[in-house]
Amino acid sequence: MTSTHAPAHRTRSTSVPAVVTRIAVLGITLAVTVFIAPVLISQQSWMWLAVLVLSAVGIFALYSTQRFVPGKYLFPGTFFLSVFLILPIVLTIGYSFTNYGDGTRGTKEQAVGSIVASSVQQSADSPRYTMTVATAGSPVEGPFELYLVDPADGTVYHGAAETELEEVDSGAVTVADGRVTEVQGLTVLDAGEVNTIYSELMELAVPVDDSSAVRPLGVNQAFVGTTVLQYDEATDTITDTAIGDQYTVGEIGDSHYFVDSSGERAFSQGWLQSVGLSNYERLLTNPTVAGQFFSAFVWTLVFAAGSVLLTFALGFALAVVLNDQRLKGRRFYRSVLIMPYAIPGFISLLVWSNFYNRDFGLINEMLGLDLDWFGDPSLAKVAVLLTNLWMGFPYMFIVSTGALQAIPDELTEAARMDGASPLQATRKIVLPLLLVAVAPLLVSSFAFNFNNFNAIELLTEGGPFPDGSGRGATDILISMVYRIAFGGSGADFGFASAVSVCLFVLTGVLAAIQFRFTNVLEDIN
Fold first, then answer.
1. Which of 112, 139, 373, 520 is the most buried (most CB within 10 A)?
2. pLDDT in tens, 35-67
3. Is 126 helix (H, G, I), strand (E, B) or coil?
């Protein structure tokens, strides 16, 4: 009897932690969904809302029962793969067909609101209110709402960028010392948080009627001003009531903006629009852009291939030397040689950037040179390759050392007995066999250096810029994309996304060619 019921007892006892864990996971999932979903709805982030809902449904469908056992193990990896890899790729491809960038990030309604808000003017008799900023979302991203208290009679008003000013029921807010301190269902921002969003807050205007709006004045006050610019939805025009000018929607390039009577762009704000294949046409047909892209592509190939060849050559040579059993202190030498690999890359790059300083850099001082390493395009490229050699050869040394251990000594001994010199044995026997083992790692190293943004940005910042163009002499494709997206002349995310898609395709094609080469090497066996 005891032996018969013992397994059942153990099964029941061990299932309790599993049940508790399952309930905890489902409870946390439900809580997160309920908390985040309203925020996403208020921000109109429909794509992320769909991801959230589908993920929550998937978790409940898989983990609320004892069925679908394979799915329980596949779901976490599939979820993170989709969110952090596949979805960004899809978004990048989608943005490549738009004009997404500075001044064209939101909808047309948001652009009109921003244009009208920027025209609100304060007069000497403009009413002032005590202002409180609240949000249903993030204290950094919003959306933000204004709660105003009239100092004359204590009336509380509420409004947002797309919500007209209206009186608030006193029971929905808490007022202390003449200002709103609490709002039901919303988070009230403190002074520090308001300072963080100050620039965005200064662009916010709450409409009062067709000719006036409320704008913030500092971090805790707001005023009612007159809107000089007024939008007519029926005619889709903006009128300047002060001078009588009217601005209509016109096409400039592949995007639409409000333009004046001469067809010139009247305001910096635009709106997000689809431009089709325009970004790709610009990349491939514009002589200046295409030339910069081709130059960056050639240098990227030279940089990636040169880095791999140089680091492998040095790492392999050192591995062969230290693989000689007759050499004493091999462990010490190996420990010293891998030290550059143990130092964080960004620290090494920042230190080496100082080494190349023309006036007091270590290299010029030690060698008695007066070379402008970062001022001459050719020297800057040499500096990048030398620095990457220093940072990369320890990895190749470790890889080659490990691969050499797997090659039987009898092969080299037999070659020497046949009259081959040590150099010939290494070149004809050791190197081909070693390449079979390390070729995939060389391919991955090439792909890494093909997109090695840190090596360029932290060392030369893409410079020098001899012709004053957007691309520097040492810019590889990925750093060129960064400069397009976040350059000083204004962000152009749509075009940067198009370049990123082309870069993704190029990397895939080159990787496929290299893996074909790897298969050829395997025929050596």
1. 373
2. 888 878 877 788 889 999 999 999 998 888 878
3. coil
Distance of CA 405 to the CA centre of its chain: 41
What end-to-end distance do the CA atoms of the chain give, in Å?
63
Q: How far is Cα 497 from Cα 283, in angstroms, rounded to an integer?
A: 11
Cα separation of 101 and 271, whole Å? 9
Q: Which residues contact 433 (CB under 8 A, 6 or more apart)?
A: 407, 411, 524
The verdict on pTM exceeding 0.85 is: no
Q: What is the C-alpha to C-alpha distance for residues 378 and 376, in angstroms, rounded to an integer?
A: 6
- Which one-letter amino acid corresponds to residue 313? A
CA triple 201-106-205, angle to 5 deg: 30
The dihedral through the CA atoms of 502, 507, 510, 513 has a sign that is negative
Rounded CA gap, 152 and 129, in Å? 9
Binned at pLDDT 50, 70 and 90, residue 378 comes out as very high
Residue that the structure tokens 């029962």 belong to = 65
Provide long-range contacts, Cβ within 8 A and 24+ apart, for 486-493.
Answer: 490/101, 490/102, 490/103, 491/101, 491/102, 492/101, 492/102, 493/95, 493/100, 493/101
Closest CA to 412 of 427, 425, 431, 428: 425
